[in-house]
């Protein structure tokens, strides 16, 4: 009995003790009596052999980090993606934790210090603030753990900004071409949120930044020449040209594959590349440069709507497409801009201009039987109710061949009835389309088969290469010259053996067998790019 009483008293004492211990247990975590050291604190304490960092309080750090990123947000190149990435990672110092002790953040700073090799000042990528924060943490002179938080927070944010900006500029280019260049329609890949997440989440800064260094032979040749001018003649005009074209080399253009056609506007040439070989190379004529003071004159025109105030812009657009068809003996659907600015004045001076030029006139889609009788002075050119077509034949401005590809600018490659333009040094003379010097040879590479090429030749009064088809050719020629029957020349379509990628590009400097070739900035596009690039030097 006495034993049971003693047990009861013991149980009562244990219950009272338990009630006292429960609130104490809740207080223990708050007091950090047995709290685990944070990952970054553990890393720093081991790296510096300093137990101070074991006191690193994650909750206290988060408060400091939030204030720090808010204060630096205005200096970040991509604040939205950076703040979102840290929100997804609970505002932890991910980069400092992973890359401080092993020297990777020092490697990041080293890459940035060498950015003049690409034509950029290290300050563009925040080199000095990054270096300052690295030195502050590496000094290991903190007296209290509270002094560590702002240094780690700023180092983390500076590292993220420098890593992301350096990666994106070197890998994608510093500029967005469609925002700066008139008539730029080449799909050019730019860094997006997915790219930025991948960069910030990299497993190796060293490998990542090594992998994005431009390796093309053309880039390296431009880079070598640029560094030579930067050391010997930093004011040389060639230096600017080299830097602008290095930027173009960094742009991620569509994949052309091993075989493609490239028109280089400043060089006034077309080249068909097949791997490392050149299948054909020829002169071209391109669109004329847009009128000086274009933007100001355009604003005037938008106010007056007077065609006399509308500035001219015939620049050939930069684009990427695929050649998919050939039209032989083409009809020219004359653009309304040419009808209003040129044809209207021609018919006022010469009522027979249209018939002499093999041009037809259409009113509401119906062909006008005798356009020479139209009283043109009754119509203002701003509200001209007619459309115009030039028929097939020798006098057609498109010549005998038109090479088609999908685009939103209504341009194409074509032959011409005026070959004199190819003798000019400056061949920026067309209304925007590209005139080719060797249309027949170009067509031969495009058509599906030798048999199709012979048919194409006969359509333009050339004998077939296959002599067994000569009887067919003679019959066709006799039909065309039969004076008793009126023969009307009509367009014929030919398919291509495959859709050949076409890049209408703009390069004013490139490497050719070890020599840098320079060309005039015919459209002034280099100046548009240089206006921004020079601020990054």
TrEMBL record:
Q: Report the sequence similarity comment from the record.
A: Belongs to the YkuD family.
The protein's matches in InterPro entries, at most eight in alphabetical order, are given as: LD-transpeptidase_YkuD-like, LD_TPept_cat_dom, LD_TPept_scaffold_dom, Transpep_catalytic_dom
Swiss-Prot/TrEMBL keywords: Cell shape, Cell wall biogenesis/degradation, Membrane, Peptidoglycan synthesis, Transferase, Transmembrane, Transmembrane helix
List each copy of the L,D-TPase catalytic domain by range. Answer: 259-461
The record's section on PROSITE patterns has:
LD_TPASE (PS52029)
Top-level division of the source organism's lineage: Bacteria
Look up the record and name the pathway of this protein.
Answer: Cell wall biogenesis; peptidoglycan biosynthesis
Where, by residue number, does the polypeptide cross the bilayer?
17-35
Kindly identify the residues recorded as the active site: 414, 433
GO molecular function terms listed in the Swiss-Prot or TrEMBL record:
carboxypeptidase activity; transferase activity
Q: Per UniProt, what is one Pfam family of this protein? A: Scaffold
Please state what the protein is called.
L,D-transpeptidase-like protein
Output one GO BP term: regulation of cell shape
